[in-house]
Design brief:
Blueprint (H helix, E strand, L loop, with lengths): L1 E5 L3 H9 L5 E3 L2 H7 L3 H11 L4 E4 L5 H12 L5 E6 L2 H12 L3 E7 L2 H9 L4 E4 L1 H6 L4 H15 L4 E4 L5 H10 L3 E4 L1 H6 L4 H17 L5
Parallel strand pairs: 1-2, 1-8, 2-3, 3-4, 4-5, 5-6, 6-7, 7-8
Bound molecules: erythose-4-phosphate (E4P).
Length: about 220
């Protein structure tokens, strides 16, 4: 499973990239707001850190304007993925932009039917939001699993990009049900290293090592 980082924090992206943890990056208008930076400038910097797909989101509501914004965003770098919302206009923009050879990430997906029509419109990635479904007491992971089954049933090549990933458990479940990609904030990716038994075991090793009186260096 590929790891995308869901942030515009370039220092965090660099740190994870140095460890081989970054296969791509996702941003959205809220993430750009949080960064406090200009969208074109910060996106260009992110594209210089990773050669993987970097999602930059359009902000207009009608297809024509989305297409114009998508073309402008795609000029930033070759690895830009234009992110469009899962609306009828977003699907029209997806069809045109993917027809021009641009990568397109269709975002804000909350149902199997939405994922199905995004694939038919030529989406490179479909972004089902796990956490936001869980927030309203629906099962985000079940949606990932259902989309996997539908895409496999019909051989769709659209990649399932599990989004709104909020916990280490979400990451493990995404890998188990066969998401192609998951995108998570840096803190969630770093938390994947944590286990209480690792901490406990290490504490014991430290104590026992001190008792040996030995040194390696
Ligand atoms: C990524 O493409 C999404 O915009 C992001 O994962 C949304 O996450 P959130 O629901 O935690 O804001």
């Amino acid at each position: 499973m590929k790891f995308f980082v869901d942030t515009a924090d370039v220092d965090a992206i660099r740190e994870l990239n140095d460890l081989g943890m970054v296969d791509g990056v996702t941003t959205n208008p809220s993430i750009i707001l949080k960064s406090g930076r200009d969208i074109m400038e910060v996106t260009r910097e992110i594209c210089s850190i990773t050669s993987g797909p970097v999602s930059a989101e359009v902000v207009s509501m009608n297809a024509e304007a989305m297409i114009a914004e998508g073309r402008k965003l795609a000029e930033i770098a070759e690895n830009i993925t234009v992110k469009v919302p899962l609306t009828w206009d977003g699907l029209k923009a997806c069809k045109v932009l993917s027809g021009e050879g641009k990568m397109v990430n269709v975002t804000l997906c909350f149902s199997v039917n939405q994922a199905l029509i995004a694939a038919k419109a030529g989406a490179t990635f479909i972004s089902p939001f796990i956490g936001r479904l869980d927030d309203i007491n629906l099962d985000g992971m079940e949606l990932i699993s259902d989309i996997r089954q539908v895409y496999d049933n019909y051989g769709f090549e659209t990649q399932i990009l599990a989004a709104s990933v909020r916990s280490a458990n979400h990451v493990a479940q995404c890998a188990l049900v066969g998401a192609d990609v998951m995108t998570a904030p840096p803190a969630v990716i770093k938390a994947l290293a944590n286990h209480v038994l690792t901490d406990k075991g290490l504490e014991q090793f430290e104590k026992d090592w001190a008792k040996t009186g030995q040194k390696i260096l």
